[in-house]
Amino acid sequence: MPVDRGIIGTRTDAFTAVAERSRLRFFARATGQQDPVYTDLAAARAAGHRDLPVPPTFLFCLEMDNPDRGRFLADLGIDVRTVLHGGQRFEYHDTVCANEPLTLWTEVTDVLSKKGGALEFIVRATHVSRDGAPVATLTSTIVVRDPKAAR
């Protein structure tokens, strides 16, 4: 089933999320961060941070906290069993720290088709802001596989 290019420019509702210290510490340990600024508040403050800084790629976890995250694909009629994660890129505009309320919303920026429609690529940008100022942009690509396409 081809993905309608008309979805380009559509966006999700904004939602608010907060990165709690305990969650940041867990993520830092799970991803092998060795720098104590990610786990020790005193070390973070000594390094000039307001609180524990968000480790690289952690904002993807907050993006997944969207209370309506499954609605996007469901509204397009896409079966989640045909979806693959095609890539992720992070662009940081400012440091993000623990306990800061962040606002996130996602927009579709492109739709591409490859292999004669066997693979559809949906490119999305998630915008993250703090007090209205942008702090990060997460760009992700969702690959939708057509199970009926010849292999």
TrEMBL record:
<dbReference type="InterPro" id="IPR016709">
    <property type="entry name" value="HadA-like"/>
</dbReference>
<feature type="domain" description="FAS1-like dehydratase">
    <location>
        <begin position="8"/>
        <end position="137"/>
    </location>
</feature>
<protein>
    <submittedName>
        <fullName>MaoC family dehydratase N-terminal domain-containing protein</fullName>
    </submittedName>
</protein>
<dbReference type="InterPro" id="IPR029069">
    <property type="entry name" value="HotDog_dom_sf"/>
</dbReference>
<dbReference type="Pfam" id="PF13452">
    <property type="entry name" value="FAS1_DH_region"/>
</dbReference>
<dbReference type="InterPro" id="IPR039569">
    <property type="entry name" value="FAS1-like_DH_region"/>
</dbReference>
